[in-house]
Protein backbone atom coordinates (compact mmCIF):
# COMPACT_ATOMS: atom_id res chain seq x y z
CA UNK A 1 0.00 0.00 0.00
CA UNK A 2 1.03 3.60 -0.63
CA UNK A 3 0.44 5.89 2.34
CA UNK A 4 0.64 9.65 1.89
CA UNK A 5 1.12 12.32 4.55
CA UNK A 6 -0.09 15.88 4.09
CA UNK A 7 0.56 17.83 7.27
CA UNK A 8 -0.79 21.07 5.82
CA UNK A 9 -3.69 20.29 3.45
CA UNK A 10 -5.83 22.99 1.89
CA UNK A 11 -8.84 23.73 -0.18
CA UNK A 12 -7.25 24.71 -3.47
CA UNK A 13 -9.33 27.46 -5.02
CA UNK A 14 -8.60 28.27 -8.65
CA UNK A 15 -9.75 31.50 -10.29
CA UNK A 16 -9.41 32.09 -14.03
CA UNK A 17 -9.31 35.77 -14.98
CA UNK A 18 -8.59 37.60 -18.23
CA UNK A 19 -5.82 39.64 -16.60
CA UNK A 20 -4.77 40.71 -13.13
CA UNK A 21 -4.12 44.34 -12.30
CA UNK A 22 -3.14 45.15 -8.73
CA UNK A 23 -5.43 47.68 -7.06
CA UNK A 24 -8.34 47.07 -9.46
CA UNK A 25 -11.49 44.94 -9.27
CA UNK A 26 -10.83 41.53 -10.83
CA UNK A 27 -13.66 39.78 -12.70
CA UNK A 28 -13.49 36.01 -12.35
CA UNK A 29 -14.25 34.04 -15.53
CA UNK A 30 -14.48 30.67 -13.78
CA UNK A 31 -13.71 29.18 -10.37
CA UNK A 32 -13.42 25.78 -8.77
CA UNK A 33 -12.40 24.31 -5.42
CA UNK A 34 -10.67 20.96 -4.86
CA UNK A 35 -9.08 19.01 -2.04
CA UNK A 36 -5.46 20.08 -2.12
CA UNK A 37 -2.08 20.04 -0.50
CA UNK A 38 0.93 18.31 -2.04
CA UNK A 39 0.35 14.93 -0.42
CA UNK A 40 -3.34 14.92 -1.29
CA UNK A 41 -2.44 15.64 -4.92
CA UNK A 42 -0.12 12.63 -4.82
CA UNK A 43 -2.93 10.54 -3.37
CA UNK A 44 -5.41 11.52 -6.07
CA UNK A 45 -3.01 10.65 -8.88
CA UNK A 46 -2.08 7.31 -7.27
CA UNK A 47 -5.80 6.51 -7.24
CA UNK A 48 -6.18 7.41 -10.91
CA UNK A 49 -3.23 5.10 -11.62
CA UNK A 50 -5.39 2.34 -10.11
CA UNK A 51 -3.72 1.91 -6.77
CA UNK A 52 -5.45 2.14 -3.36
CA UNK A 53 -3.57 4.83 -1.42
CA UNK A 54 -4.31 5.91 2.14
CA UNK A 55 -4.18 9.62 2.98
CA UNK A 56 -3.06 10.89 6.40
CA UNK A 57 -2.33 14.23 8.03
CA UNK A 58 -4.34 16.87 9.90
CA UNK A 59 -7.78 18.29 9.04
CA UNK A 60 -10.03 20.69 10.90
CA UNK A 61 -13.18 22.77 10.65
CA UNK A 62 -15.43 23.25 7.64
CA UNK A 63 -12.52 23.09 5.21
CA UNK A 64 -11.41 19.78 6.69
CA UNK A 65 -14.88 18.30 6.23
CA UNK A 66 -14.96 19.58 2.65
CA UNK A 67 -11.66 17.82 1.90
CA UNK A 68 -12.85 14.56 3.48
CA UNK A 69 -16.01 14.68 1.38
CA UNK A 70 -14.03 15.31 -1.80
CA UNK A 71 -11.83 12.29 -1.05
CA UNK A 72 -14.93 10.21 -0.32
CA UNK A 73 -16.31 11.10 -3.77
CA UNK A 74 -13.05 9.79 -5.26
CA UNK A 75 -13.26 6.60 -3.16
CA UNK A 76 -9.95 7.44 -1.47
CA UNK A 77 -9.35 6.02 2.00
CA UNK A 78 -8.14 8.41 4.67
CA UNK A 79 -7.09 8.41 8.30
CA UNK A 80 -6.68 12.10 9.03
CA UNK A 81 -6.21 13.36 12.56
CA UNK A 82 -8.99 15.79 13.48
CA UNK A 83 -7.87 19.14 14.88
CA UNK A 84 -9.79 22.10 16.33
CA UNK A 85 -8.35 24.80 14.07
CA UNK A 86 -9.51 25.40 10.51
CA UNK A 87 -7.64 23.81 7.60
CA UNK A 88 -6.22 26.47 5.29
CA UNK A 89 -7.20 27.80 1.87
CA UNK A 90 -4.82 28.28 -1.04
CA UNK A 91 -5.65 30.45 -4.03
CA UNK A 92 -4.29 30.06 -7.57
CA UNK A 93 -5.14 32.83 -10.05
CA UNK A 94 -4.54 32.02 -13.71
CA UNK A 95 -4.69 34.73 -16.38
CA UNK A 96 -5.35 34.37 -20.10
CA UNK A 97 -1.61 34.36 -20.81
CA UNK A 98 -1.42 31.27 -18.51
CA UNK A 99 0.59 33.01 -15.82
CA UNK A 100 -0.18 31.45 -12.42
CA UNK A 101 -0.10 33.44 -9.16
CA UNK A 102 -0.52 31.57 -5.89
CA UNK A 103 -1.57 32.79 -2.44
CA UNK A 104 -0.75 30.19 0.23
CA UNK A 105 -2.11 30.50 3.77
CA UNK A 106 0.16 29.52 6.67
CA UNK A 107 -2.03 26.77 8.10
CA UNK A 108 -3.24 25.81 11.60
CA UNK A 109 -1.35 25.26 14.87
CA UNK A 110 -0.96 21.61 15.82
CA UNK A 111 -1.23 20.76 19.52
CA UNK A 112 0.87 18.09 21.25
CA UNK A 113 -2.14 15.79 21.73
CA UNK A 114 -2.83 16.02 17.97
CA UNK A 115 0.71 14.84 17.25
CA UNK A 116 0.31 12.02 19.76
CA UNK A 117 -2.89 10.82 18.07
CA UNK A 118 -1.24 11.01 14.63
CA UNK A 119 1.77 9.02 15.86
CA UNK A 120 -0.43 6.27 17.27
CA UNK A 121 -2.25 6.02 13.94
CA UNK A 122 0.84 5.96 11.77
CA UNK A 123 2.44 3.22 13.87
CA UNK A 124 -0.57 1.05 12.99
CA UNK A 125 -0.76 2.09 9.33
CA UNK A 126 2.97 1.54 8.71
CA UNK A 127 2.48 -2.22 9.15
CA UNK A 128 0.57 -2.40 5.83
CA UNK A 129 2.58 0.26 4.01
CA UNK A 130 5.20 -0.41 1.32
CA UNK A 131 5.75 3.19 0.17
CA UNK A 132 5.25 6.23 2.39
CA UNK A 133 5.15 9.63 0.72
CA UNK A 134 5.42 12.79 2.83
CA UNK A 135 4.93 16.05 0.95
CA UNK A 136 4.83 19.76 1.58
CA UNK A 137 5.29 22.15 4.47
CA UNK A 138 4.63 21.65 8.16
CA UNK A 139 1.70 23.13 10.01
CA UNK A 140 2.61 25.57 12.77
CA UNK A 141 4.11 23.97 15.88
CA UNK A 142 5.32 20.74 14.24
CA UNK A 143 8.94 20.08 15.29
CA UNK A 144 11.61 20.80 12.69
CA UNK A 145 12.87 17.19 12.80
CA UNK A 146 9.46 15.57 12.33
CA UNK A 147 10.14 14.30 8.80
CA UNK A 148 13.35 12.77 10.13
CA UNK A 149 11.29 11.01 12.79
CA UNK A 150 8.95 9.62 10.12
CA UNK A 151 11.91 8.57 7.98
CA UNK A 152 13.40 6.64 10.90
CA UNK A 153 10.05 4.91 11.48
CA UNK A 154 10.04 3.88 7.83
CA UNK A 155 13.55 2.44 8.10
CA UNK A 156 12.59 0.45 11.19
CA UNK A 157 9.66 -1.06 9.28
CA UNK A 158 11.39 -1.60 5.90
CA UNK A 159 9.19 1.02 4.20
CA UNK A 160 10.50 3.12 1.31
CA UNK A 161 10.28 6.79 2.34
CA UNK A 162 9.71 9.36 -0.42
CA UNK A 163 10.06 12.94 0.79
CA UNK A 164 9.07 16.06 -1.15
CA UNK A 165 9.79 19.12 0.96
CA UNK A 166 12.42 21.85 1.11
CA UNK A 167 14.62 24.01 3.32
CA UNK A 168 15.60 23.02 6.86
CA UNK A 169 12.97 20.25 7.20
CA UNK A 170 14.56 18.51 4.21
CA UNK A 171 18.11 19.11 5.42
CA UNK A 172 17.34 17.59 8.82
CA UNK A 173 15.31 14.72 7.33
CA UNK A 174 18.25 13.60 5.17
CA UNK A 175 19.71 12.08 8.35
CA UNK A 176 16.99 9.41 8.15
CA UNK A 177 18.27 8.36 4.68
CA UNK A 178 15.04 8.78 2.65
CA UNK A 179 14.65 6.49 -0.35
CA UNK A 180 13.89 9.37 -2.73
CA UNK A 181 13.84 13.16 -2.65
CA UNK A 182 12.79 15.53 -5.46
CA UNK A 183 14.25 19.04 -5.12
CA UNK A 184 14.21 21.60 -7.91
CA UNK A 185 17.12 23.90 -8.74
CA UNK A 186 15.93 26.76 -6.51
CA UNK A 187 15.47 24.39 -3.57
CA UNK A 188 18.99 22.98 -4.09
CA UNK A 189 20.47 26.48 -4.16
CA UNK A 190 18.73 27.27 -0.88
CA UNK A 191 19.59 23.96 0.75
CA UNK A 192 23.28 23.84 -0.19
CA UNK A 193 23.87 27.60 -0.47
CA UNK A 194 25.55 27.25 -3.87
CA UNK A 195 25.05 28.43 -7.44
CA UNK A 196 23.77 25.69 -9.74
CA UNK A 197 23.70 26.44 -13.45
CA UNK A 198 25.53 23.87 -15.60
CA UNK A 199 24.76 20.17 -15.93
CA UNK A 200 28.00 19.32 -14.09
CA UNK A 201 26.99 21.57 -11.20
CA UNK A 202 23.55 19.95 -11.06
CA UNK A 203 25.08 16.47 -10.91
CA UNK A 204 27.60 17.57 -8.25
CA UNK A 205 24.76 19.00 -6.17
CA UNK A 206 22.87 15.73 -6.47
CA UNK A 207 25.93 13.80 -5.32
CA UNK A 208 26.22 16.09 -2.32
CA UNK A 209 22.62 15.31 -1.36
CA UNK A 210 23.44 11.60 -1.58
CA UNK A 211 26.39 12.15 0.76
CA UNK A 212 23.98 13.88 3.14
CA UNK A 213 21.76 10.79 3.24
CA UNK A 214 19.40 10.49 0.26
CA UNK A 215 19.42 7.12 -1.52
CA UNK A 216 18.02 8.48 -4.77
CA UNK A 217 17.79 12.10 -5.91
CA UNK A 218 15.45 13.37 -8.63
CA UNK A 219 16.35 16.95 -9.58
CA UNK A 220 13.46 18.63 -11.32
CA UNK A 221 14.39 20.87 -14.25
CA UNK A 222 10.82 21.87 -15.14
CA UNK A 223 10.23 21.94 -18.89
CA UNK A 224 13.79 20.70 -19.39
CA UNK A 225 13.08 17.37 -17.69
CA UNK A 226 15.09 16.01 -14.78
CA UNK A 227 18.30 14.45 -13.58
CA UNK A 228 17.97 11.23 -11.55
CA UNK A 229 20.92 9.78 -9.68
CA UNK A 230 22.10 7.55 -6.87
CA UNK A 231 25.51 6.30 -5.76
CA UNK A 232 26.08 4.22 -8.90
CA UNK A 233 23.88 5.65 -11.69
CA UNK A 234 23.00 8.96 -13.34
CA UNK A 235 20.10 9.41 -15.76
CA UNK A 236 19.06 12.39 -17.85
CA UNK A 237 15.39 12.77 -18.73
CA UNK A 238 14.12 14.93 -21.60
CA UNK A 239 10.42 15.68 -21.93
CA UNK A 240 8.48 16.84 -25.02
CA UNK A 241 7.35 20.44 -25.35
CA UNK A 242 3.72 21.00 -24.41
CA UNK A 243 1.24 23.86 -24.10
CA UNK A 244 0.76 23.74 -20.33
CA UNK A 245 -2.64 24.69 -18.92
CA UNK A 246 -1.80 24.54 -15.21
CA UNK A 247 1.57 23.41 -13.86
CA UNK A 248 0.50 23.50 -10.19
CA UNK A 249 0.52 19.90 -8.97
CA UNK A 250 2.79 18.58 -11.72
CA UNK A 251 5.58 17.87 -9.24
CA UNK A 252 3.10 16.03 -7.00
CA UNK A 253 1.87 14.01 -9.98
CA UNK A 254 5.48 13.13 -10.78
CA UNK A 255 5.94 11.89 -7.20
CA UNK A 256 2.77 9.81 -7.57
CA UNK A 257 4.23 8.21 -10.70
CA UNK A 258 7.42 7.41 -8.81
CA UNK A 259 5.44 5.92 -5.93
CA UNK A 260 3.34 3.68 -8.14
CA UNK A 261 6.30 2.62 -10.29
CA UNK A 262 8.40 1.75 -7.24
CA UNK A 263 5.51 -0.19 -5.70
CA UNK A 264 5.17 -2.17 -8.94
CA UNK A 265 8.89 -2.85 -9.17
CA UNK A 266 9.54 -0.96 -12.40
CA UNK A 267 13.07 -0.72 -13.75
CA UNK A 268 14.60 2.78 -13.62
CA UNK A 269 13.91 3.74 -17.25
CA UNK A 270 10.25 2.74 -17.06
CA UNK A 271 9.96 4.42 -13.66
CA UNK A 272 11.28 7.72 -15.04
CA UNK A 273 8.99 7.56 -18.06
CA UNK A 274 5.90 6.96 -15.94
CA UNK A 275 6.69 9.67 -13.39
CA UNK A 276 7.45 12.31 -16.00
CA UNK A 277 4.41 11.38 -18.08
CA UNK A 278 2.25 11.95 -14.98
CA UNK A 279 3.78 15.39 -14.48
CA UNK A 280 3.12 16.27 -18.11
CA UNK A 281 -0.49 15.09 -18.01
CA UNK A 282 -1.20 17.17 -14.90
CA UNK A 283 0.16 20.26 -16.67
CA UNK A 284 -2.21 19.65 -19.59
CA UNK A 285 -5.30 19.71 -17.34
CA UNK A 286 -6.86 22.56 -15.42
CA UNK A 287 -7.51 20.47 -12.30
CA UNK A 288 -4.63 20.26 -9.82
CA UNK A 289 -3.51 16.75 -8.93
CA UNK A 290 -5.16 15.10 -11.92
CA UNK A 291 -3.86 12.96 -14.76
CA UNK A 292 -5.52 11.38 -17.79
CA UNK A 293 -4.50 7.73 -18.26
CA UNK A 294 -4.51 8.00 -22.06
CA UNK A 295 -2.24 11.04 -21.88
CA UNK A 296 0.06 9.25 -19.45
CA UNK A 297 0.42 6.33 -21.84
CA UNK A 298 0.99 8.66 -24.79
CA UNK A 299 3.69 10.74 -23.11
CA UNK A 300 5.45 7.73 -21.58
CA UNK A 301 6.44 6.87 -25.15
CA UNK A 302 7.69 10.44 -25.79
CA UNK A 303 9.84 10.86 -22.67
CA UNK A 304 13.49 10.19 -23.48
CA UNK A 305 15.70 8.62 -20.81
CA UNK A 306 19.48 8.49 -21.24
CA UNK A 307 21.80 6.69 -18.82
CA UNK A 308 24.89 8.87 -18.37
CA UNK A 309 26.69 6.55 -15.96
Describe the structure.
The protein is of the alpha/beta class and 309 residues long. Helices cover 37% and strands 25% of the residues. It contains ten helices and 14 strands. The strands form two sheets. It has a ten-stranded mixed sheet with strand order 5-4-1-8-9-10-11-12-13-14, with helices on both faces. It has a four-stranded mixed sheet with strand order 3-2-6-7. α2 links the parallel β4 and β5. α1 crosses α8 and α9 crosses α10. The protein is globular, with a radius of gyration of 19 Å.
Secondary-structure map with pairings?
Layout: E1 2-6, E2 10-17, E3 28-36, H1 38-48, E4 54-60, H2 61-73, E5 77-83, E6 88-94, E7 100-104, H3 112-125, E8 131-135, H4 146-156, E9 160-164, H5 167-173, E10 180-181, H6 185-192, H7 199-211, E11 216-220, E12 226-229, E13 234-238, H8 250-263, H9 268-283, H10 293-300, E14 304-307
Helix pairs in contact: 1-8, 4-5, 8-9, 9-10
Per DSSP E runs of 2 or more residues, the count of β-strands stands at 14
Helix share, percent? 25-40%
Tertiary shape: globular
Low-confidence stretches: none
Mean pLDDT: 95
Q: Please provide the ordered H/E string of secondary-structure elements.
A: EEEHEHEEEHEHEHEHHEEEHHHE
Secondary structure class reads alpha/beta
The number of helices is 10
- Our estimate of the beta-strand percent is 25-35%
Structure, briefly:
The protein is of the alpha/beta class and 309 residues long. It is built from ten helices and 14 strands. A ten-stranded mixed β-sheet has the order 5-4-1-8-9-10-11-12-13-14, sandwiched between helices. The protein has a four-stranded mixed β-sheet with strand order 3-2-6-7.
Amino acid sequence: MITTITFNPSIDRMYKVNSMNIGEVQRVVSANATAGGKGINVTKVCKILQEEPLAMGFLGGYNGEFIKEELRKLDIKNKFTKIKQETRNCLNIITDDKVSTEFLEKGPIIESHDLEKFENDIKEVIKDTKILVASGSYCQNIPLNYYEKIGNLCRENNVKFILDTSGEPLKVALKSKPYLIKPNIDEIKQLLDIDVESMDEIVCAGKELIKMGAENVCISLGKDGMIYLNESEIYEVKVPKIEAVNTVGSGDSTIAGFSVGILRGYEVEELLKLSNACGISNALNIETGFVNLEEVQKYKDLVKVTKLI
